[in-house]
C-alpha cells in the first residue's frame, strides 16, 4: 500500500463510520422524513446545514463526505437536537464520539479544516474539483474586495487567417475584453492598460487598434473611461460612481495584427497561440482560438497555466519558467458544432464571431474553434493556448 493510501486509511474509515452513524440519527427522528426542511423545522436548526449534511453522507466516497459535511460544532448541535427529538441515547452517543474523533483528526493531524480539505482533495476527481473551485471562489471574493472591482466574464476571441502576401504568414484579428464589469469600492483606482481611444491615433503602433464600433455586441453600457498618459503608456481609468448590483458595464477592444504569426517554427521558436491574463477578478474566463484556411491543421493545442506573481508574464518556450507552471484541471475543448460557440454569460458572442468572419471574408461554417473555459480563474494566473508548429520544409 502506498504512503498516500496509508494516509487516507484513517480518514476513510472515519468517514464511513460517520456516514452510517449520522444517517441513523437523522432517519430516526420521530415523525420526520429525510427531507432537509422537515428535519430543520423539527430540530429548530439551520436548513442549509441539514441539507449540506444529508448531501455529504450520501456521497459514495467517505473522503468526499469528510470534506463536505459541516464542522464538528454544527454536527454536535444537530445530534443533540435529534436526541431531544426522539433519537435513542445510544445512537446519539455513538455519533457524538465519532464527531469528537473528526474534531481531533482536524486539529491534531491537519491543524485546520482548510488544511484537511487540501490534504484530502486528491482522493478522487470529485473531491479535487470541488476543492479547487471552492478555493478559486475564495480567491475571487478576496481579490475583488482588494482590487475594488469584479466582472462576470473575461473573453478573448482570436481569429487566425492566411496572410495574403506571405504564404506562411498568419493575420490575427482579436476582440477581447470583459462583460459585467462592476466597481465595488470608491477608494481604489481601477486602471487598465487596455484599448487606445481615437484621440491617440498618431501614437498607435502594431498591434493596430481598430476604430470600428463594436458596442452593438455589448450586453451592458460601455464602460466610462478617463484616459491619461503615464510613463509612455495610455492608462484607462474606470471610476464610475458606485451603484447597485445592476451598475454593470462592458469593455471590449478590437485588435488587428497583419502577418502577426507564422505557420512554421522560426528563430528558435515553435509555439503559436494566445495568452490571457485577466486584469481584474472574474467569474468566468472564455478564450477561443478560431482557425481558418487549414491553419495548424492536424496539430492539437496544449494548455499552459502559470503563476505570474513571482516573475511576471511567462514565455512558454523559456524552460526556466517551467517552475511557475500550475497543474490545471481544465481541458481545451474542440467545438465540433458551431452552436457550441454560445457563451451563456454573453448572448451576443456568436454574432461577434460572425462579425470577425465577415470582416476577414471567411465562411462562418468553415472555422475550427478550440476553447478554454475556466470558472473563477485565479487572479494573476496566465492561461495560454499554444500550438507546436513544424519546421519549414527544406
Molecular structure report:
This protein is α+β, with helices and mostly antiparallel strands and 394 residues long. The chain contains nine helices and 14 strands. Strands 1, 2, 4, 5, 8, 10, 12 and 13 form an eight-stranded mixed sheet that branches. Helix 1 packs antiparallel against helix 6 (89-110) and helix 6 crosses helix 7. The protein is elongated. The N and C termini lie far apart (53 Å).
**Gap between N and C termini, in Å?**
53 Å
How big a fraction of the residues is strand?
25-35%
Instruction: Estimate percent helicity.
Output: 25-40%
Mean of residue pLDDT values: 87
Give the low-pLDDT segments: 1-7, 195-199, 201-209
H/E order of the elements? HHHHHHHHEEEEEEEEEEEEHEE
Q: What overall form do the CA principal axes indicate?
A: elongated
Q: Helices and strands: which structural class?
A: alpha+beta
Number of strands: 14
Rg, Å, rounded: 26 Å
Largest sheet: 8 strands, mixed
User: How many helix segments?
Assistant: 9
Amino acid at each position: 500500500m502506498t504512503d498516500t493510501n496509508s494516509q487516507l486509511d484513517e480518514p476513510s474509515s472515519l468517514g464511513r463510520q460517520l456516514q452510517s452513524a449520522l444517517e441513523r440519527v437523522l432517519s430516526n427522528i420521530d415523525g420526520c422524513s429525510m427531507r432537509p426542511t422537515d428535519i430543520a423545522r423539527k430540530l429548530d436548526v439551520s436548513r442549509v446545514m441539514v441539507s449540506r449534511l444529508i448531501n455529504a453522507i450520501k456521497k459514495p466516497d467517505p473522503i468526499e463526505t469528510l470534506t463536505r459535511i459541516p464542522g464538528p460544532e454544527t454536527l454536535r448541535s444537530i445530534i443533540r437536537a435529534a436526541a431531544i427529538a426522539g433519537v435513542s441515547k445510544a445512537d446519539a452517543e455513538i455519533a457524538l464520539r465519532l464527531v469528537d474523533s473528526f474534531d481531533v483528526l482536524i486539529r491534531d493531524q491537519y491543524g485546520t479544516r482548510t488544511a484537511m480539505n487540501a490534504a484530502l482533495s486528491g482522493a478522487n476527481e470529485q473531491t479535487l474539483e470541488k476543492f479547487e473551485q471552492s478555493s478559486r471562489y475564495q480567491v475571487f471574493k478576496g481579490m475583488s474586495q482588494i482590487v475594488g472591482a469584479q466582472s462576470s466574464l473575461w473573453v478573448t476571441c482570436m481569429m487566425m487567417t492566411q496572410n495574403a502576401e506571405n504564404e506562411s504568414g498568419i493575420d490575427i484579428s482579436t476582440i477581447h475584453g470583459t462583460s459585467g464589469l462592476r466597481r465595488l469600492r470608491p477608494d481604489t483606482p481601477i486602471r487598465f492598460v487596455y484599448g487606445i481611444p481615437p484621440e491617440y491615433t498618431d501614437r498607435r503602433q502594431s498591434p493596430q487598434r481598430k476604430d470600428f464600433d463594436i458596442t452593438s455586441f455589448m450586453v451592458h453600457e460601455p464602460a466610462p473611461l478617463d484616459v491619461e498618459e503615464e510613463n509612455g503608456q495610455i492608462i484607462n481609468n474606470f471610476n464610475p460612481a458606485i451603484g447597485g448590483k445592476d451598475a454593470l458595464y462592458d469593455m471590449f477592444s478590437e485588435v488587428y495584427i497583419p502577418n502577426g504569426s507564422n505557420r512554421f517554427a522560426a528563430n528558435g521558436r515553435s509555439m503559436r497561440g494566445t495568452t490571457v491574463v485577466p486584469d481584474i477578478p472574474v467569474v468566468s474566463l472564455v478564450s477561443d482560438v478560431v482557425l481558418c484556411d487549414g491553419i495548424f491543421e492536424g496539430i492539437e493545442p496544449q494548455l499552459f497555466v502559470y503563476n505570474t506573481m513571482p516573475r511576471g508574464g511567462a514565455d512558454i518556450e523559456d524552460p526556466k519558467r517551467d517552475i511557475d507552471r500550475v497543474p490545471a484541471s481544465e481541458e481545451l475543448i474542440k467545438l465540433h458544432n458551431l452552436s457550441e460557440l454560445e457563451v451563456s454569460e454573453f448572448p451576443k458572442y456568436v454574432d461577434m464571431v460572425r462579425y470577425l468572419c465577415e470582416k476577414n471574408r471567411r465562411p462562418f461554417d468553415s472555422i475550427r474553434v478550440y476553447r478554454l473555459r475556466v470558472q473563477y480563474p485565479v487572479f494573476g494566473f496566465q492561461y495560454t493556448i499554444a500550438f507546436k508548429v513544424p519546421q519549414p520544409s527544406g
